[in-house]
Design goal:
By secondary structure, the protein is an alpha/beta fold. It has 13 helices and 13 strands. The protein has a seven-stranded mixed sheet, with helices on both faces. A four-stranded antiparallel sheet has the order 9-10-13-12. The structure holds glutamine (GLN).
Length: 392
């Protein structure tokens, strides 16, 4: 048998996506892989129907259709208070997943070190491996998921080229404060490195927390590669529309990587997405209100059942502590993955085992998401209620 590359042996498939497959197999309610069970805004759907007849159906410009880049640049310019040039500072990608991979491949040589907070969204580990980089993990310590700045400085001293910041943070729901970001930014500038941000949950930030854009901090646009997407903001995860924003000299290289990876994101979907970006600011406020309500509703449900959990400041994820269950004789020796598999089969609700997000040996957390309609949440909570009976 011919051999495969060594690199494919160094990471597993995505546990998040695997849980969705197992969930589907058993017909459970999917609170594992985070995606909404409701539709994108109507204007986007209507425009898509038109585009089906009018086109475009052929390739767009590889780094993104001009009208979509214009719309994204306008949105980001408003957000960060600096004009983003649609012609030289944006690459439209196939989801933020490609944006992050593209960012890593653009800046990393084999053996370069990249700092990643732990817990982390599992893609970053694989992205690092695929781009030849070596991750240095910086622990985010519960309950507030704070970090030790000195550890980040040591990472830069050890030669780290970049720090990946998922803000708001998947899976722990942390929203980095302005002070925290300023402190990281000072180090990024001091060591002439990059901040690579994943800001796909930028609009899912719960008051009093506020989203601060790394690239908006003084001197940081030149040091930041911002990865983002339309998936969460417009409830369109399957459209696979993402983007990367960076200074022109970085984008120029990122465009080449992107071009040879995927050529481009789906042209008809890019065209239809422009309609969503013309929605007024009230759209984002309504989205935020909707998710605030979902968060409060789901957390109240968990409280009623007596499940211990964190209170996310952002994202649509919540981590639930399953230690009380793991301590029961019936779960002796269970990993969090085995518990999640059991829960899919016996309770009918899917979650993601927390160990897939942590570098540290954490086995007592599972992640639910609440991007679900109220009925679905009610059904899931009713099923989770059965867990209560297990506890003494
Ligand atoms: N970000 C989502 C999650 O963490 C899903 C992302 C994906 O599967 N591409 O569940």
């Amino acid at each position: 048998m011919p051999g495969l590359s060594d690199r494919v042996g160094t990471f597993t498939d995505s546990v998040i996506r695997r849980m969705t497959r197992i969930c589907n197999q058993y017909g459970a309610i999917n609170l594992s892989q985070g995606f909404p069970d409701f539709d994108p805004p109507q204007v986007m759907l209507d425009r898509l129907a038109q585009v089906a007849h009018e086109g475009p159906h052929q390739y767009s410009v590889t780094f993104g259709a001009k009208n979509l880049r214009d719309a994204l640049a306008a949105k980001q310019s408003r957000a960060i208070g600096r004009t983003v040039d649609p012609d030289s500072e944006i690459v439209v990608t196939c989801g933020s997943t490609e944006a992050m991979m593209c960012a890593m491949m653009t800046i990393c040589n084999p053996g370069d070190k990249v700092m990643v907070f732990s817990p982390f969204y599992e893609n970053y580990g694989a992205d690092a491996v695929l781009s030849g980089a070596e991750p240095i993990y910086i622990p985010l310590t519960p309950p507030d998921y704070s970090f030790d700045l000195a550890q980040i400085e040591r990472g830069f001293q050890a030669g780290a080229k970049a720090i990946v910041i998922c803000n708001p943070s998947n899976p722990c729901g942390k929203v980095f404060t302005r002070e925290e970001l300023e402190a990281i930014a000072a180090l990024v500038i001091k060591y002439d490195a990059f901040a690579v941000t994943d800001e796909v949950y930028e609009h899912l930030v719960y008051a009093p927390a506020e989203h601060v854009y790394m690239s908006a901090l003084p001197g940081m646009f030149e040091h930041t590669i911002t990865c983002n997407s339309l998936s969460k903001t417009f409830s369109a995860t399957g459209w696979r529309l993402g983007y990367l924003i960076a200074p022109a000299w970085v984008t120029e290289a990122a465009r080449k990587v992107h071009d040879f990876l995927t050529v481009g994101a789906a042209a008809p979907l890019q065209e239809a997405a422009v309609a969503a970006l013309s929605l007024p600011d009230s759209y984002y406020a309504e989205l935020n209100a909707l998710y605030t309500e979902k968060r409060d509703y789901f957390l109240a449900g968990l409280d009623r059942i007596g499940l211990k959990h964190n209170v996310p400041q952002g994202t649509y994820f919540v981590l639930v502590d399953i230690q009380d269950f793991l301590d029961l004789p019936q779960f002796a020796g269970y990993t969090d993955l085995q518990f999640c598999e059991w829960m899919i089969r016996q309770i009918g609700v899917a979650a993601v085992p927390g160990s897939s997000f942590f570098q540290e040996p954490v086995n007592n957390l599972i992640r639910f998401h609440f991007a679900r309609q109220k009925d679905t949440m009610d059904q899931a909570l009713a099923r989770l209620e059965k867990l209560k009976a297990l506890l003494p």
